[in-house]
């Protein structure tokens, strides 16, 4: 396992294994408990709830966020079962967000399968999302840590606020890089942050250590989202589990588009205005968008920014004592950034 | 104030004032704090959030649920500020539910105004509802009572589960009275229960007292919802803040319809099947529905059941020491049931 090989850490991100395999192996036993708890939490006498929950749960998501919670608790020697409950709650918060996002974005696909709303309708997707969020809070309360509850309830608010900000910024090319980073801090980085922060909290660590893990999660979340943005214009649909160009077709103003629009000539800006702002998309437009993104260096610049966040995520891990779990958390950073080149 | 006049209580519901005026007067000072906190919690840099929240908050809802929380804490001599936070959280949970309900039911009106989704869209209504729910949990966590958090997070799950059950039962005349009471227990009584239960919890009372207030809230919630169901076919739109017949037009199977369908002749059942199940509604159908509900005694029977729940709500108050707050809680029962005759 790569996690055991490397002894020196700082500044060696490139040398570490760009894989989540070490993490998956380390947290495997705990994640079995998380998965069992998730199935239990998705139970209900209202048949649609377990049906929809299983549709999402069985759809092959990586479960990166709950794995981070498990690793961030175990890295501090935690031996209780609170981390399993918090991890399951984090995954339910994420799943609830996906259900509502697909309704808001009118998405047809999710992780390579039909979105729940295409099978059960928008109404059921809204209500089952609410149920999963309620179940997430019930499970958190069982852990009995007010600090963990504070972190996760704040994340729930911030995520929703980020989605509202994204909705308001939708189809608006005047969104600048700073505003966009604010959106992804809220809609993505906040849950990565909370998922990591509750690890040292449940393990009873001090405020500085908790802040370090919060920083690791935040930086990783930024890197993860920016890579996702780049992949939407360059990854294969095999990798993504969604069609390439989803963001483009939904008129989402992401960092690649912001950078390409800023660097483009008049004709380019007219193209982005027609497609993203006015939603007038014809055959060949996605290909032209990808060509513009490559010509202006917007994809490369987006990936470069993701790498910067990744470096800072690894730096934050200096607060974590040497262990296989700490190494695995470092590998996650390399993995996230390496998904795109 | 009627609350001070009557000294003897049990079995005297009819003699008590059918008004929430005593409650409003008693909790007025605390409710000013609740209202200030609600405005604070609805703040956000995402402009749509305070706009939508204020649209609902300023729309003249009675704020019955948070008033119950305040009274149920004060009735036990509580002097802290936790009840104000819990009351605001309860109102936010309710407001979030309204936002999502209107999306799910495709409602056009709410409390006599255009529903938020008609002004800001379904997308914003879903996301702002999520934000309000997140803010509710943040506020609850500040109180620091894990017992209150357990009660309210369980309510959040149960409410959503009830909404899913109602969605599944929609337009289905095979729904029987027992199944329907299960739906309203979840979608309405659960929040009344939690709103009342957290009062003695925050006041540090024993399990029996907490259970008694939980029972009071549950029974009151049933009574409240059944009266609402009856009013939808008989109240004036002035009273309701929504058009009479909303449930009918949305194909909602409520207790009046269940009872009328069961007691009706073949032609009646064909009428309910066409209108409620198939949604084929023509001019004059609402008037005919109201006529059938009156002829079969379905409205009277629904109100009679509501009265039964009201009696049990008052019985549960035996666990509360004599006080103006206790009297006001009793008056709420009479008020709820007296909204319809």
Automatic annotation (TrEMBL), chains A, B:
It holds the Pfam family polyprenyl_synt. The keyword Iron-sulfur does not apply. One of its GO terms (biological process) is isoprenoid biosynthetic process. Its cofactor is Mg(2+). It comes from the Bacteria. Keywords: Magnesium, Metal-binding, Transferase. GO terms for molecular function: metal ion binding; prenyltransferase activity. The keyword Magnesium applies. PANTHER family: ALL TRANS-POLYPRENYL-DIPHOSPHATE SYNTHASE PDSS1, GERANYLGERANYL PYROPHOSPHATE SYNTHASE. Belongs to the FPP/GGPP synthase family. This is Octaprenyl-diphosphate synthase.
């Amino acid at each position: 396992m790569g996690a055991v090989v490397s002894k020196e850490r700082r500044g060696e991100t490139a040398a570490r294994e760009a894989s989540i395999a070490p993490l998956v192996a380390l947290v495997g036993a705990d994640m079995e408990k998380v998965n069992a708890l998730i199935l239990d939490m998705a139970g209900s006498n209202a048949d649609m709830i377990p049906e929809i929950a299983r549709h999402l749960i069985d759809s092959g998501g990586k479960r990166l966020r709950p794995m981070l919670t498990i690793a961030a608790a175990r890295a501090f020697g935690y031996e209780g079962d609170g981390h399993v409950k918090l991890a399951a709650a984090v995954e339910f918060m994420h799943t609830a967000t996906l259900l509502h996002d697909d309704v808001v974005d009118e998405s047809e696909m999710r992780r390579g399968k039909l979105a729940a709303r295409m099978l059960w309708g928008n109404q059921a997707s809204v209500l089952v999302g609410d149920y999963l969020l309620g179940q997430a809070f019930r499970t958190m309360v069982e852990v009995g840590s007010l600090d963990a509850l504070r972190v996760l309830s704040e994340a729930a608010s911030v995520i929703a606020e980020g989605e509202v900000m994204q909705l308001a910024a939708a189809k608006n090319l005047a969104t600048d890089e700073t505003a966009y980073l604010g959106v992804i801090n809220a809609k993505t980085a906040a849950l990565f942050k909370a998922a990591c922060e509750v690890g040292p909290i449940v393990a009873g660590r001090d405020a500085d250590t908790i802040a370090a893990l919060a920083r690791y999660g935040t930086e990783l979340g930024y890197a993860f989202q920016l890579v996702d943005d780049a992949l939407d214009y360059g990854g294969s649909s095999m990798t993504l589990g969604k069609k390439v160009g989803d963001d483009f077709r939904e008129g989402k103003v992401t960092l690649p588009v912001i950078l390409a629009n800023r660097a483009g000539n008049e004709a380019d800006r007219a193209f982005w205005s027609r497609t993203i702002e006015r939603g007038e998309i014809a055959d060949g437009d996605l290909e032209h968008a990808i060509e513009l993104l490559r010509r202006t260096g917007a994809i490369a610049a987006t990936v470069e920014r993701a790498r910067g966040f990744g470096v800072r995520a690894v730096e934050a891990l200096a607060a974590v004592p040497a262990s296989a779990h700490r190494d695995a958390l470092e590998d996650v950073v390399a993995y996230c950034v390496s998904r795109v080149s």
